Fold:
Amino acid sequence: MKIEKNTVATVTYSLRVDGELIEETGKEKPLTFLAGVGMMIPGFEGQLIGKKPGDNYDIKVAPEEGYGLVNKEAIIDLSLDIFKVDGVLREDMLQIGNVVPLQDQNGNPLQGVVKEVGDDTVKMDFNHRLAGKELSFTGEILEVREATPEEIEHKHVHGPGGHQH
Ligand SMILES: [Zn+2]
Structure:
């Protein structure tokens, strides 16, 4: 059967950005997802609708349909004090391009990339690392089946590649 809303699709995929391989999943550990519930990025899922097992795909996803555009408000100057441990500046953390795990006011984990280091502040970019990027996906459709009523209710896949409960 073909991929459509409320089907469970099993696919391989490679994700490339600017020609660089970001993620790859082959037949040993394919991606299984429930279509039509917003589980996947919209530009990925939308372009796989209508494909069937044995089909290959080669699709491009614009930033708006992928991880979003770069949000300038998510690029923030932080005080250098945040990078001091016991009064000593952790210069090893402050290399340009370094990904630093931090927390927001509510204690939620955040990842920021070091963009610039000034005398008192550090410019950090909290955008998703793939924000503003065109995504290029290639892969093969391995399997498509109808979702069970329970899966549709839970909005996720049960069994292999999904939730085990
Ligand atoms: Zn469930």
Summary: The radius of gyration is 20 Å. Residues 154, 156, 158, 163, 165 surround zinc ion (CB under 6 Å). DSSP finds two helices and twelve strands in the chain. The longest helix spans residues 42-48.
